[in-house]
Amino acid sequence: MKAYPHTRKNADPAPGDGSDLASSGGGGRPAVMRRLARSHGLLAATLIALWLAGCAAQRLPAPTPPQAVVASKVTVHSVLMSQDLRQLVVTTPRHHFVLEAPSGVAATLRSTYRASVVATFGRVSVDADGSCGLTYRLSLPPGRLSALQQAQALEDGYRPVSGGGGVLEGFLSGRRYLADVDLSDLSAIRLRQSYDLDVFELAVPADGGKGSASPSPIRRALKDALFIGTLPLFPLGIPMAILCADGSCTR
Predict the structure, then answer these.
(1) In the prediction, which pLDDT does 59 show?
(2) How many CB atoms are closer than 10 A to CB 16?
(3) What proportions of the chain, in percent to the nearest 5, are helix, strand and coil?
(4) Burial of residue 149 (number of CB atoms within 10 Å: 0-12, 13-18, 19+)
(5) Which of 100, 117, 98 is nearest to 237 (CA)?
(6) Residue 68: which H helix or E strand, with range?
(7) Which of 1, 18, 106, 214 is the most buried (most CB within 10 A)?
């Protein structure tokens, strides 16, 4: 019997011989099409992601440009306190500054040592919406208080200093109003000495910041009585000093 070399039916074609395409008469085209479809899908996904990123960037708010700061000096006419000792009012020719009095300030005004206190105010900062604030420093000179008064001052929040006396420092915040009430004839509330106060104000934005132009809540009743809301106002009965921007102090 004649021997034949062993052969295997449907033997795998040699790699790269192209028989996988030729043997099926173009049967490899579906695989090529699938690869092309995947490539197109990746490209489309990339383009969509880039488009979404561009839309998100367009929705981001534009950066706020820096606001101009206007520096000026104003003359203080009077410093008043409300009857409940919670509001401090600083009057100038054009504006009224209504500030919330911290508990230490209110305690000082109720105390028996208040006549010995010297108040120093720093420069005023005013935002475009009319909100404002300034630093304050209440000083008790050494040797002016009794032992009982000294103890009371420490309880009210004063910090003892070397050599005696004490210091109470803090920040007053509030709002600036238009001085639409004429107080020029009220000599009883005017300070004995005029003081200049440094004011640093942010310029009002173009879309309008009306807080600084709001009418003053201070009203006159009869001839010389002043009220804020329903509360009477009284002159601040302690000596004052104004701390200038350069750090100097006037008395």
Answers:
(1) 55
(2) 7
(3) 25, 35, 40
(4) middle
(5) 117
(6) none
(7) 106
pLDDT digits (tens, 9 = 90+) for 139-154: 998 888 899 999 999 9
Report residue 52's pLDDT band, with 50, 70 and 90 as the boundaries. Answer: low
Q: Name the strand (E) or helix (H) holding 109.
A: helix 103-110
Neighbours of 116 (CB within 10 A): 19
Unique residue bearing structure tokens 């990746």: 42
DSSP reduced 3-state for 106: helix
Encoding tokens for residue 234?
Answer: 């009284």
The per-residue b/e assignment along 166-200, b for 16 or more CB within 10 angstroms, e otherwise, is bebeeebebbbbebeeebeebeebbeeeebebbbe
Segment (H or E) for 21 = helix 19-22
Distance of CA 93 to the CA centre of its chain: 27
Tally the residues of the chain: 251
Q: How far apart are CA 98 and CA 131, in angstroms?
A: 10
Rounded CA gap, 190 and 167, in Å?
26
* Contact present, 87 and 100 (Cβ < 8 Å): yes
pLDDT tens digits for 116-136? 888 888 889 999 888 999 998
Give the whole-angstrom CA distance, residue 209 versus residue 78.
Answer: 27
